[in-house]
Specification:
Blueprint: H1 3-7, E1 15-18, H2 27-37, E2 41-45, H3 46-52, H4 54-64, E3 67-75, H5 83-101, E4 106-110, H6 121-142, E5 145-148, H7 165-172, E6 180-185, H8 186-189, H9 195-202, E7 206-211, E8 213-214, E9 226-227, H10 236-245, E10 252-254, H11 259-262, H12 266-280
Parallel strand pairs: 1-2, 1-10, 2-3, 3-4, 4-5, 5-6, 6-7, 7-10
Antiparallel strand pairs: 8-9
Helix pairs in contact: 2-4, 2-12, 5-6
């Protein structure tokens, strides 16, 4: 697909580049890369925003005409009471304000793993839920949705004690949908038994639809095991149909953690992800 056809293809209107997919790009480069590729939105990470300053980031986004589809990341709320937990809550409150300033609807919450030496995963989940409850008033005041991201069980110990969409929804449904939703991420959820029914249950609580593929063999660092759409085992047609049936009308973020992808020139990565999106996702968005 040529650069001209990508730049003028209206079917890309809902495709968003999550910054980690082109991890070597600065925020400025990511914004320019999205504009050059004809994309309309960008999922930003807090660290690149902090590198240039929030006000500069806001201005650049506004001048580019892009939407910010989501901000990554908040969460990591599984530690017990003490200074570390308070610091995490303060960081999440700052993230909520950053999300609102950037005009993004969603702050992604990565739950967090087990504190060092802790083996009580149920208690850790409870502390994460308590943290969400503490942050809901801040989110409501800012008009930001806290999106709980369930993560594949291989990350339960160090990153995400919430492993299924069912668990995430059990938590989210304790709060207004305007304040707490869920992330539907193909990489994390494709394996979940009954996930079709859980996506239907999620309905308007789907705050973000993120896509990448499950590739094998897994690399030594499982965190870097996400593949380009179409390179692995996930049925994107089925998954996208399920999400579309809920009425989800938001952006579709490509979020890939993969050393080979990161070593590829960003413009090439964006061109490939756009082609794969048009082939394997967009036709079934409805």
């Amino acid at each position: 697909m040529s650069a001209v056809s990508v730049a003028t293809d209206l079917r890309l209107a809902r495709l968003s580049l999550n910054q980690r997919t082109c991890a070597e790009w600065t925020l400025r480069e990511a914004i320019d890369g999205c504009v050059s590729a004809g994309l309309s939105s960008l999922g930003v990470w807090r660290e690149p925003v902090a590198d240039v300053g929030l006000e500069t980031a806001r201005r650049w986004v506004e001048e580019s005409g892009l939407r910010v589809s989501s901000v990554c990341r908040g969460g990591f709320l599984t530690m017990p009471e003490g200074s570390a937990r308070q610091e995490s809550l303060d960081s999440n409150r700052a993230a909520i304000e950053e999300t609102a300033t950037l005009g993004a609807p969603t702050l992604v919450l990565v739950p967090g793993g087990l504190p060092e030496g802790d083996r009580d995963i149920d208690a850790a989940r409870g502390r994460f839920l308590d943290g969400v409850a503490t942050l809901v008033p801040d989110a409501e005041a800012a008009g930001v949705v806290l999106a709980i991201e369930p993560m594949h069980p291989i990350f339960a110990a160090d990153r995400g004690v919430v492993s299924t969409l069912e668990q995430a929804l059990d938590m989210a449904e304790q709060f207004p949908a305007s304040a707490v939703g869920v992330v539907v991420d193909t990489f994390h959820l494709w394996w979940e038994p009954g996930v079709e029914q859980q996506i239907a249950r999620a309905g308007d609580r789907i705050a973000s639809y993120q896509i990448s593929d499950w590739i094998t063999p897994l690399p030594p660092d499982a965190l870097l095991s996400r593949g380009m759409v179409g390179d692995g085992h996930i049925d994107f047609e089925a998954f996208t149909r399920w999400v579309a049936r809920t009425g989800y009308a938001g952006d579709v973020e490509v979020e890939i953690f993969n050393a080979d992808v990161w070593a590829t020139p960003g413009a090439e990565v964006v061109a490939t992800m756009s082609e794969r999106y048009l082939e394997r996702v967009q036709p079934w968005l409805g």
